[in-house]
Each structure stands twice: as structure tokens, then as C-alpha cells.
Design brief:
Layout: E1 4-7, H1 8-13, H2 15-22, E2 27-31, E3 34-39, H3 42-49, H4 55-59
Parallel strand pairs: 1-2
Antiparallel strand pairs: 2-3
Length: 84
Amino acid sequence: MTITTLSSREFNQGASEAKRAANNGPVFITDRGRPAHVLLSIEDYQRLTKQRRNIADALAMPGVADIEFEPPRMNFEARPADLS
């Protein structure tokens, strides 16, 4: 799978090239240097949107390792339980 990144301007000037690139993997379209949209082939879209039965299936999906995701860390304070 090849990941392609295009600016909005490049996408507007070369939509047919972007569609061809989407046959080989997702095409990220950026606005001011930040990812804003993703162009996928219909086959990739259908594969991604089919119902997943559990989180393990979703995480085993091809290409997941290429996705950058850093969720914010949550800090929880333990409180004593009120059992009265």
C-alpha cells in the first residue's frame, strides 16, 4: 500500500492523478500543511466501513500500523469508596 499526500492545490489541478494514486492506497489532501481529507478507492472504502465485530478485528486491519495516533493521557485520582 502506498500513501500519497497532496496539497489542496495539487489535488485541484490533478484530480485524475489523485484518483489513480487512490488505487494504490489512501491519498491525504492537506490544507495549509495539515491533513484535511482522504481519498480512497471504493474497494478500500467498502473494506473499511464493513461492520467490525470487535476491536481486535479493527486493529488487525491492514494499514493500521501506518496511522499516527497519540491520544491524550488521562490521569485519574483514586478516591476512597463510601460504603455507608
